[in-house]
Structure formats: structure tokens, C-alpha cells
Amino acid sequence: MDMITQTFIELCEWDSSRFLIFSDNVFGTLIYYSHFLAMILALVVGFFVFSQNKKGLVNKLLFFIMLFFATWTFLDLVLWANERPDFIMFFWSLILLVEPLVYALCVYFIYVFIEKKDISFKKKIGIFSLLLPIIVLLPTQLALVSFDLSNCFREPIEGPIATYYIYITETIYLFWILLYAFKAYYKATEIMRKQIILVTFGIILFLLSFVSGNIIGSITEDWTLAQIGLFCMPLFALFLGYMIVKFKTFNAKLIGTQALVAALGFSVLGIIFIRSIDNVRAVAIATLLLIIIMGDLLIRSVKREIKQKEELAKLNVELEKLIKQRESLMHLINHKVKGSFTHSKYVFAGILDGTFGDINEEVRRRSEQGLEANDNGIKTIDLILNAANLQQGLIKYEMKKVDFKDVVSKSFSEKKIPAEKKGLKIEKEVGESDYTVPGDAFWLQEAVNNLIDNSVKYTKEGGIFISLKRNAGKILLSVRDTGMGITPEDKKNLFTEGGRGKDSIRVNVDSTGYGLYSVKLIIEAHKGKVWVESEGEGKGSTFYIELPAVE
Amino acid sequence: MVDKKSKIFFLIFISLAIVSIIITYNKYVINNDFEVFQDEEAFNESLLEE
């Protein structure tokens, strides 16, 4: 700088800044208040959202938006406080770059937020290429022409990039967001529409917080009043928080509390240093607004939580009542229903073995049918009672070393007769190996019986192929059938209580939905796994049981 | 996940921005290479008034 310039600067009597941002050149503490508040809130929101899901693109983008916004706020504060023309020229240039960058990131953010995936490469080029002229021409006079010292002005004279291009670019970005949101709104579902409205409204409000400062300042020449723009930042945080609570996008309750505490703490701290009574009033109004907005969000959130807890307690009482009813129903089934079945079983058996005298062929046939139906009834009751006992943990397993090959062979022999009676081919393949597993032989038998029984019941033609293998400390039993197959939808319910395929009743009228559920409970109690694979309806299924082998 | 093409694009973009910032810093802060607009006449007048 030449001597004349130095003299001019000295005559202007500007205060020297400390740590770039503290000096008497900043008139009104409100400027510190608005800038620090916005900066802290932006960083709290940004870091919190990022910490929730470090890999999520939406989270990363929001983090960068908040980080660059905080940077912008800091740079703006430097320009208010600093007295060195070279610093002002440099930091002013940085603002020219950071401000439209926040806009560009907001366009990227809204795409990813609505589409729930990254945007195409072409769109990225489209969004960010608008910034290239600013980057390339930043050090030239097209960005900043000179430093204005006349009348002790402490600001640069802007070139066409700063005066026109940046505002045009920011307007384009704003319309881009609006048009895209408008288009997405009409294609979206009802729930998504609410999210689109909120996120668009929040982002537009946030972006306007930049321009409003310049507009208000230029029109009114009151740059303290222009700080109102920055107070849009808590409003944006509110919208974000509302979305988080409402749509579980992020975790808003915590973020809302953190932001409120940080903002209130800073507000109180700010008031201590304020000298002018007018500024105290402005800060008090801003703080009051913040308390009303954020406090309302938190109260609603707490109210909702209390309501949910009350509903949960009510449901718990109902659940306990249902459990008691279920226990009493089980008792009734076990003693009364099963007792009646057992009684009629002996009556039918008596008729058949001639206890009640000679019978003709028709009576014999009918009695045999009655006896079979009785047996099925007793089996079904046993299955349901077993499942209930297994589920409640009432079964005590006697864990010993069990040869799983014997278990499978016994089930195979038992189920061979009903399968062949149905015209099905049934085969078994057991490789030479040691199949000893730790377990309860009775319940493992029950599980394998149920699994093979299930395949026999749901296979009309073709066959059942059982295979037993040992691989790396695990024993794998597979039961493949050429039956009705399983749809992906049915697969989800198959091993659940009362769960069965949608067409299972059509094929097996005695389907209880408890057979495979019992298998799952027994195998999991043996630290094993059970699952099914099927290529779909009509294409058969393969059921697997995997158990840890004794080493 | 951001694809490889985008990563390269952002890398070039960020590099360009950093280079531009360094040149700007060099120009304004190190070399003081900027014109200062000063209305000397008005300034002298104001001094006389004082």
C-alpha cells in the first residue's frame, strides 16, 4: 500500500481487530448476537445430523450446508470487524464463493432428500458448473474492482461477477428448488408431500436469510436491522426439527433440546455484554421468539411421548389380561377338549375291537374314520400345547449327546408309510460322518418329524428328498419337496406363531400354523438355525435345519 | 454412495476452488495487488472543514 493510502486509513481512525472478529468497528452487539447464534445453531444441527448417520448422503449434505453457512457467518463477521483493506478484499472474495456454494448444496440436498438416492452425474455437473465462473474469475477485477476508501467506506467496489452473476445464480438455484419441489409434489405420495412442503419451505426460508440481510440493509441503510435475516436460521432449525419428529427423518427431540439450550445460553451471555438499551430490547425479542418456537416444539414432543407412554401402559394391562385368558384357554384345551377326544378315542377303539359286541362293515368303516379324526385332533392339541409351552420356556431340555443320524432315520421310517400311501417318492441320503449333536433327543425328534410331516402334507405329487451332511462343525439337514412352493410373502410368516401360507388351508385342511413354529423354537433352543428356500409358488421348497456338531 | 465419476468431478472442483483461493490470497494479502479508490478532493475538503 502506498503512503497516501496508509495516511487515509490512519485518518479514518478504525479500530484494530482482535482475532479477526472483535473490534469497535462493529456497531451494535446485535451483530455479534445474530452471527454467533446462527453459527452455533448451524454447527449444532450439522454435527448432530451427521453423527446420526455418518454414511447417509442426506446427512452429509446437510452437514456441509451447515458448515459452509457457519463459515459464511464467520466471514461476514470478519468483514464487519476488520480494518485491513487486504483482508477485507480477501474475505469478501471468499464470501462471493461460499454463498452460492451453499445454494448449490441446497439444490443437491433437496434432490437427495426427496428421491432418497444420489442424483445423476449430469445433474451434478449442471448444479455445480454454475459456480465455475466464480471460481475461475475470483482473483480478477471482474469479481472485485477496487477497495473503496472514499468517505472512510470500508468495503470493496464489486465487479460484474459480484454485482450480477452471483445474484443471477442464486435466483436460478432458488427457482430450481421451487420447480423441482413442485414437480416432485405432484408425483409423491400423501406422506411424502408433507415432507416435500416442509423441506422446501425450510430451505427457501434458510436461503432467504442470506439475501434478506443485503436487501433490508440496502433499502433501509440500517445494517443492524438487516441482521433479522440471520434469525431465519433458528426458524429453519425449527422446520428441520419438526420434520425429524414428525417423519423420524433424524432424531429431533435431542437436536431441538441441544439447539435450544445452546441458543438460550448464548442469548443470556449476549445480554451481559450489551450496552445500548435498544439492542437489549432487540435481543430480548429475538430470544423470546426463539423460546416460543423451540419451546413449543419441545412441549409438543414431550406431550406426544407422555401420550405414547400412557397408551403403552394401557396396552400392557390388556396384554397381561390376554396372557391370563390364554393360559386359562390352554388349561381348558388340555383338560376338557383333549379329555373328550381321548374318551371318544377309547369308545371308537372299543367298537373296533368288539368290546361292545359284533359290528357290521359300515359301522367298522365309520368307526375307523372316527378314530383317525380323533387321533388327528389329539395330535393338533399336542402341537398347540407344545408350541405354547416351548414359547413360554416351560420345556426343560435334557441335553445329552444325540446321534442326529438316528433321529433322522427314525423320522424317515415313520413318515415313509404316509408318504408312500399318498403316492409320493421318499428318499434319504446320509453321508459317512459323525452326526453327534448336543441336544434333547425327544424334542429334536419332534422337530424333524414336524419338518418331514410338513413336506408330506403339502406335496401332492413327486417326492421328498432328505439329505444329511456335516460341514465345518455344523450338521445340515435338508428336506426338499416338489410341493406347492412358497411365495416370498408367505416366507416371512412361515415360522411365526399361527403363521402359514395363504393357500396352505386349501392343500391341508388340518393346517394349524404351529408345526414350523415349534420347529423354530426347538432348533433355536439347540443353538441351531431353521430356514426355507423356494423359487416360488408351485416350484417346491427346501427346508433346512442347521445344528452345531459335537467337536 | 457417490459414484467414482462424481468423486473425480468433486475432486477437480475442490482443487480448482483451493487454487483460486490461494491465488486470491496471494494477490490481495501477500502482494497487496488491488487498487484503492480514494476521493482525494473530498477528503482534503473534509480535512479543511475539521
List the topology elements.
The complex is a heterodimer of chains A (551) and B (50).
Chain A: H1 3-12, H2 30-52, H3 57-81, H4 85-115, H5 121-129, H6 132-137, E1 144-148, E2 155-158, H7 160-187, H8 190-220, H9 232-247, H10 252-272, H11 277-352, H12 361-391, E3 400-403, H13 404-421, E4 425-430, E5 436-439, H14 441-457, E6 463-471, E7 474-481, H15 488-493, H16 504-507, H17 515-525, E8 529-533, E9 541-548
Parallel strand pairs in A: 4-6
Antiparallel strand pairs in A: 1-2, 3-5, 6-7, 7-9, 8-9
Helix pairs in contact in A: 2-3, 2-10, 3-4, 4-7, 4-8, 7-8, 8-9, 9-10, 9-11, 10-11, 11-12, 12-17, 13-14, 14-17
Chain B: H1 4-30, E1 35-37, H2 40-49
Number of structurally distinct domains of chain A: 3
Number of helices of chain A: 17
Quaternary class: heterodimer
Structural class of chain A: alpha+beta
Q: What is Rg of chain A? A: 38 Å
Overall mean confidence score, pLDDT of chain B:
83
Q: Which range does the strand content of chain A fall in?
A: 5-15%
Coarse morphology of chain B: rod-shaped
Q: Could you name the ranges of chain B where pLDDT drops below 50 across 5 or more consecutive residues?
A: none
Task: Give a quick account of the main beta sheet of chain B: strands, pairing sense, barrel closure.
Answer: none
The average pLDDT value of chain A, as a whole number, equals: 81
In the CATH hierarchy, the architecture of the largest domain in chain A is Up-down Bundle
Secondary-structure element series of chain B: HEH
Uncertain runs of chain A: none
CATH homologous superfamily annotation of the largest domain in chain A: Rhodopsin 7-helix transmembrane proteins
Q: Secondary-structure element order of chain A, as H and E? A: HHHHHHEEHHHHHHEHEEHEEHHHEE
Catalytic activity (chain A): ATP + protein L-histidine = ADP + protein N-phospho-L-histidine
GO molecular function, one term (chain A): phosphorelay sensor kinase activity
Keywords (chain A): Coiled coil, Membrane, Phosphoprotein, Transmembrane, Transmembrane helix
Transmembrane segments (chain A): 30-49, 61-81, 87-113, 125-144, 164-185, 197-219, 225-245, 254-274, 280-299
